[in-house]
Amino acid sequence: MQFAELNGIVVHYQDRGPRDGPALVFSNSLGTDFRLWDQLLALLPEGLRIIRYDTRGHGLSAAPEGAYFMGDLVADAAALIEHLGARGCVFVGLSIGGMIAQGLAAEHPGLLRAAVLSNTAARIGTPAMWEQRIEAVRAGGIGAIAESILERWFSARWRRENPLALAGWRHMLCRTPVAGYLGCSAAIAGTDLLESTARLRLPVLAIAGSDDGSTPPDLVRETAGLIEGVRFQLIRGAGHLPCVERPGDYARVLTGFLGEVGHV
User: Whole-model pTM?
Assistant: First the structure.
């Protein structure tokens, strides 16, 4: 296990591969940790430097009490990239990780070669919706909303055919620190990146899942449409976590983009 103290908190990360290889940095979704990317990694080209980290409030990273701000999460990502000497990386973020990617690209463009915005948007939901979810978790814990979340995360077919894996993802979700889940929910509720994302000029790949119940394809496409020169890719038969349901398809799309930007 690898840890760093960044911005006053302990961040858990994993840094594997040649230090002089092209760096990929992966940022997880709300309610998961960096194991989200496990099935994908073996399918990527050799020679890459793979960096994964647990977002503030998730996994083995610190989970401070109180509301978080998207600026906190962006600052954590920027500090980790600087700490590891990974400037010029391609940053891959899913859901809240994709919001972090947008903020990072807008505020620290010199750190990135390109960004991948997976199953995300410049604005997700409404403040009222997130406040309702926050109150539900405060009242009954994450378990009180777990089934509805899993239905949005995974396609009906995948849930039916993978009951053991589904149980594992439920465990991961429910074991997320409540303070971290609430803090990151507050960060999403308070985030509107429409203007800053529209100003992005670095290469961007946007990925959507056809059966995503959290960030539907049209929402992802709407955000992609803000960005000049963006590449949009729909992965069919996948929900909110296509790197889990369709890792082979996800790897092909990502590898193709890395080739386009000269990062393999």
Answer: 0.98
